[in-house]
Every structure is written in C-alpha cells, then in structure tokens.
Specification:
Layout (H helix, E strand, L loop, with lengths): L4 H17 L1 H43 L2 E2 L16 E2 L2 H18 L4 H16 L3 H12 L6 H17 L3 H12 L7 H14 L3 H14 L4 H12 L30
Length: 264
C-alpha cells in the first residue's frame, strides 16, 4: 500500500522528464549495450562452431587411429565383418592418424580436443618408432590447460615408456618414479611394474625387488602382481621382504581387466 502517492507520482514524473531530456544519451547507451551483447553472442557462436568442427576432425582422426589393418586391402576380419576404413600396413595407419591429429592441433589448438590431439600425436609417433618426437608432443600436451588428471598422468607414463623403448633405463626409472607415489589407482599398478622393469634392466636389482614388492602387496588383485612376483623370484628375492609374512600383506585390492598400452 502506497502511503505517499504524491511523492511516488512526483518521483516517477521526474524520472520521465529526465529520460525525455536525455533521450539521445539513453539511445546511445542502449545501442552500446546491444553492440556488446551482440559481440558476446557472436564470440560464443564462433566458439561453439569451432568446437563442433574440432570434434568432427578429432572424430575422423580417431576413426583412422582405430582403423582395421589388412594387407589385402579387403578389410574383412576373422569374423567376417567388413570394415569401412582399412589400411594395408600399420605404418600407413598411424602416419595417416598422425596427420589427422596434427591438423586438429593446428586449426583448433585452444579446444579440449585440440589439446588432447597432442597426446594422440605422441601415441602415433610411438607406433611409428619416433620416440623423441613422441616425447615432444607429450611435453606439449602437459603444458596445456587440459585438466583431466588421468590423461595427464597417462601422458607422463607414456614418456617413461618411450625411454624404455629406447633402452634408456635410468631416464625411464626417473619418469616412473616421479609418478609412482601420486598416480591414480587405475594407473599405478602399470607404473610400478614399468618402474620395476626399468630398474631391473638397469641392473638396480634391489630397487627392482622393492618396487615389485610394493606392487604385489598393494595390488594383489591386479594381473601385474603375478608378473611382479615372477620377476622377483627370477631375481632371487621376495616381494614381501625378508622376514615378512606373505599371508599378511598390506593389500589394496585393485581389479584390473587389462594392462595399459599407450598405443591403444
């Protein structure tokens, strides 16, 4: 209920009078706001369009990456299924995939798939045996703002695997060791196993046995734990350490139905 109608009307009248006197200013301000709003909408539309196009290119690159390889070129697998995209050699497949992922990174570097394509470029180069170039792409990916922890740790682990492929055991060990304590449970078993392997192949037997032991104790439900026990036995050690009770390990059950391969 308005207790002072005269004042209300008076105030409203003054506002109307002010608007009439400053009509041009109001029009100018309104026009400026429309320009700003239009610019924002245009930018958003451009960003949306770029994302759509980037996703399309990434999808095409991913199809090539997972394409069927058939030396005959017919593209029919053992189960009689005919594949649409076929390459005669792995070399052709990953060369084409690399070219496609590089196009995504060049045209849409600031999109999420543009950043992720950097890591896939690294994967392609690993398959092509170009390990130093692969590391360059992994490093570039890690310098982006792509914030998925799993993917970032996978790229870091992939760097270690490139060193292993080149028999650079010390460099591989350093890469895996940096990750071993902070890695996600979905990645840590493979990182520990690769760390143990790089230590073993680098003639650091005691360190390898200790690393394998960590894997066996903490991830007894993982298939890699069995491999770690076999490697430990081959080295003449015990995964549970001297004097430890193998029936009471510090186990973190971590079911994993497959090991990681950076090229898959």
């Amino acid at each position: 209920m308005l207790k002072q109608p005269d004042e209300f009307v008076s105030t409203t009248t003054e506002a109307i009078s002010w608007a009439a006197e400053h009509y041009r200013l109001l029009v100018a301000v309104g026009a400026a706001l429309l320009v700003v709003l239009s610019a924002v909408l245009i930018v958003r539309n451009i960003q949306h369009t770029q994302m759509v196009k980037a996703n399309e290119l990434f999808g095409q690159a991913n199809v090539a990456y997972n394409a069927f390889v058939d030396p005959t070129g017919e593209g029919v697998d053992a189960e009689g299924v005919r594949h649409q995209m076929v390459f005669k050699t792995e070399q052709d497949k990953f060369s084409k995939s690399l070219e496609s992922f590089e196009l995504v990174t060049e045209k849409y570097p600031d999109t999420s798939v543009g950043m992720l394509s950097l890591m896939f470029c690294g994967h392609c180069l690993v398959k092509l045996g170009e390990y130093e170039r692969a590391r360059e792409y992994y490093d570039r990916f890690l310098k982006t703002e792509f914030d998925d922890l799993f993917m970032r740790q996978l790229a870091q682990s992939s760097i270690g695997e490139t060193y292993m492929a080149q028999s650079q055991w010390d460099a591989a060990s350093q890469s895996f060791e940096l990750l071993s304590n902070e890695a996600l449970d979905s990645l840590r078993p493979s990182i520990l196993f690769n760390l143990g392997m790089s230590q073993e192949l680098g003639d650091k037997t005691d360190q390898a046995i200790a690393t394998y032991g960590t894997l066996v104790r903490e991830y007894a439900g993982n298939p890699l734990a069995k491999s770690a026990m076999e490697r430990t036995a081959a080295l003449g050690g015990s995964p549970f350490g001297s004097g430890a009770n193998p029936d009471e390990p510090n186990i973190r059950l971590m079911p994993m139905d497959q090991t990681l391969d950076i090229g898959e």
